[in-house]
Amino acid sequence: MSLALEPSVGPATTKQVTRERIAGNVQRYGAAIVLGLLLVVGSFAFPTFPTVSNFTNIATQSSFLLIVAVGMTFVILTGGIDLSVGSVYALGGILAAYGSTWGIAGAVLLPLLVCGTVGILQGLLIAYGGMAPFIVTLAGLLGIRGLVFALTNEGANTPLIKDASVTALGQGGLLGLRWPVVIAVVVVVIGSVLLARGRGSQTVLAVGGSESAAVLMGLPVARVKFSVYVVSGLCAGLAGALNAAYSSSGVPTVGVGLELSAIAAVVIGGTLLTGGRGNLIGTTAGVLLLTVIQNLINQVGSLTSSVQAVVSGIFLAVVVIIQTVLSRTQRL
Amino acid sequence: MTDQLSTAAPAPVLEARGVGKTFTGVAALQGVDFTLRAGESLALMGENGAGKSTLIKVLTGVYQPDEGQIFLHGEPASFAKPVDAQHAGISTIYQEVNLVPLMTVAQNIFLGREPRNRFGLIDFRKMQEDARALLATYDIHVDVRRPLRSLALGMQQMVALARAVSIDARVVIMDEPTSSLEAREVETLFRVIGMLRSQGIAIVYVSHRMDEIFAICETVTVLRDGKVVHNGRLTDLSRVELVALMLGRSVEKVKRGGVTAFGEVKEGEGEPVLTARDLSRKHQISGIGLDIRPGEVVGLGGLLGSGRSETLKAMAGVMQLDEGSLTVDGKRVRSGSVAAAIKAGVVMLPEDRKAEGIVPNLSIRDNIVLAALPRLSRAGFTSRAKQDAIVDVFMKRLRIKAASPNQVVSELSGGNQQKVMIARWLAMNPKVLLLDEPTRGIDVGAKAEVQALINELADEGLAIVLVSSELEEVVEGSARVVVLRDGSVERELRGSEVTEQHLMAALVGENHAPADESPAEIKERL
């Protein structure tokens, strides 16, 4: 006797299956589709929009947030949150500037070392101490920003980067793309491969999907939760260092509110805020979407940046509504 | 392995000797001896609170025993974590499927041990092939690339089982695996269990369903109050004897008591306290009318999908109505508002007490007064003394067994949790109590207590509507039964008509019980 497969409720209609598949795809690629539409509409509306220099600009502006958002995606996939990334980003920039006295190695390794340690501490408290990610990383947000100001004489100093090899890391590039863009692409590719085919990523998804089940299956839940905060710290530090190299200085006030942009980009990109499902292509589309909206509003010229914030906010709200509707459809 | 099976008594795979476990001064297990042999299927029986769950948790490394020793293949073993037990070959299938719903079937089966290619990356193709092959050995054919949550619960359970066994399990412990399965799925499960046993895998089976126990188990261990009261072959026992062992009562007493603990039931008198007219909601119920009088228990019969739960939900204000009216004591109640229903005196005990009822991490006291808080508060402050008084009254009256009112509800047995739920609603001074499957998932003894309680409450003048998928419960507990079919009232049984025979005939929409279909067959369709 063989057992035919029946879906959860009632017999499967092909209509239901199709609807489920469409819903799943919209959730996955929705941000990319909207991004495409926006690019087309923007190109027709503003002649100054579809230019090579404008697109390179968008790419550079997006690259820093994208690197941060990659780390954030891993955190959110486990069902966690990292609010500290904005402050860690600033710390990374300051340390890159100070470290640049030892050349490019110092400018990159010092921020990675310190920001990675911040991730380790937060990860330890969350994964092994059983504390809430929201609180631990909120403490990180406040504390690290304080540290940044302490390192810069209450924010009065803006350490400049004089080493040419370091500024080249920000300003130079490959095939017309700046290094931060190239590095961001590499980070996304590595992250995507790990997420799709890496072994630990299965545990990441399992923890976000059902932590109790993951524990009962004997998966290394604590180790994975710990790791994602380390990855997030490293990503934020790297992005901060690249931004400092790009602007030739470590500015203590950068990255305020960056954590929220990163979370927004991740969620717009189709990753469930509750964890368990998501991908980095979506996150990339989410980041680009935020930058393109900003760019288009700048094209209008007469609109202020507050308008951009309102539009981004509406966007996020719409995405969350669509996500909720879609996940309901899929549970039919 | 085959040698082992052919000998009269294969070597024990898993043993517990003199195991004891105490929680905050209460002994959950005392001197428990337990033996499981290769290929054996053992029923672990006992009322809720008898220590079954604790014993399972000790055997699977969730708890560590305070006394005694666990032996695995004759060697002393101790499991610090559930993973240790899993690695030692002891897998557990829980009542709720403990897999990741968003991930695919194949991913779930191979989580934590994914096949990898030479670059160290996961080889999804091989994973899917292996998953397909593994499931095929149990004659289960599903698309392994589908997310787990898109499968029926029974199939999910089967995937969990396949996963457990593929991790080289020698012992599989099943804790009420069938509670959410349909009859056909249970059949498949039993077939798989048979295959596992022929491979020499030992099964520990926990269930409240006697039919299943007698169908698939060879031996039985009965626990009562944390001690083993019986160990032996199941074929040597009759059902009544088994129940008597579990309850610790004599066989005669169990027989005399009948199947349920309901006393005499009578129809209510006087004006109906609740009148429902023409309750309708698209695709669910249409034109349902009911009158409930004080002091009577009205059974609401119907097959799954007949609209019985929906009717209760409509009356309790949980479900919005398209049409129809609900009147309590002559006053119209706004539909679709739980607050309005409660204010009018209509309260409902939901079917799924875990999901819709208890707040597991709160104490008994907090759970009981939860709904009554608005009534007990003045200017936003609640009176602790008033709360204590209410909690005290109901704990005594409903005979809730607990160390203190401050004990966390999740530590109580299913029966006691149900009583806490009932207490919560009684604390609201309701006029009408709607009960949806009040005895599901609770053991024989607690069931009897809840049934007796329903009787008492009706005698005190409460109007009660009872929904149950157990026919004898509806028949013996209700004075009259309103039978629903396809969302409308099929017929009403009163007086001498209230028998299982009549009820079953009405359930399937026939005026007389058909001759060619046995009651058992009709039951099957429930």
Automatic annotation (TrEMBL), chain B:
GO cellular component term of the entry, any: plasma membrane
Full protein name: Ribose ABC transport system, ATP-binding protein RbsA
Domain called ABC transporter: residue spans: 14-250, 268-511
Subcellular location(s) of the protein: Cell membrane
InterPro entries in UniProt: AAA+_ATPase, ABC_carbohydrate_import_ATPase, ABC_transporter-like_ATP-bd, ABC_transporter-like_CS, P-loop_NTPase
GO MF, any single term: ATP binding
Keywords, alphabetical: ATP-binding, Cell membrane, Membrane, Nucleotide-binding, Repeat, Translocase, Transport
Domain of life per record: Bacteria
ATP-binding is among the record's keywords: yes
Membrane topology: Peripheral membrane protein
Keyword check for Transport: yes
